[in-house]
Write the structure tokens for this entry.
Amino acid sequence: MLTKRIIPCLDIKEGRTVKGVNFEGLRDAGDPVELAKKYSDEGADELVFLDITATLEKRKTLIALVQRISSEINIPFTVGGGIKSVAEIEELLKAGADKVSLNSSIVKDPELINRASEAFGAQAIVAAVDAKKTGSEWSVFIKGGTENTGKDALEWMREVEERGAGEILLTSMDRDGTKNGFDLELLSKVDACVNIPVIASGGAGTIQHCIDVVKISNVDAVLAASIFHFKEIEISELKRAMKAEGIPMRLNFA
């Protein structure tokens, strides 16, 4: 079994880290540069940075923030939010990002995955999928969870892999920020659909939740926000507990 990863997520709005529940009710969680450095020092395997209200006007601000964060950390760093072109991806990678996360833009223009993967390699392209249960299936939502595309989430994940995405960041909108545990029903179906790494997002509230999602669904990484931002669980504590359960972890902290 490959080493599993713990990934803190920084949702950014107007230059600050924020966190809500089910994509709503955002509250301030701190300075993103300070948090990024803290998580890097504490043993996070990677970092995800999502500008959740990105617009073209904020692009220069986002680039500057990416540069500041990349200068403070020594772990892989994924950036997402409002990225619509190969040129914008190149700008972010040059600013210090190791990967980019694409969501709304690739639903509207799936060929962007092909173009980006060809230009920068699959390892630099993360397909972010925001999924919400509608009836007995899961639908893909875009625009920060405000628009139901009608696309079947599992079929869409197959397509993004075929088009050249190197990784999938799968967020359960039903579980986001609830701390009630990951959507094991959804995540357990993904392993049979795709062969690329999958990051589980949405619902982390306890150490046991993180253990369960890896053991039951075989995801490659666990992403969380609230439990780290508000100091409910330390990254080192989580990694030691997961390792004690037989899950391969990098204990890369003091």
Remarks:
- The chain is about 35% helix and 30% strand.
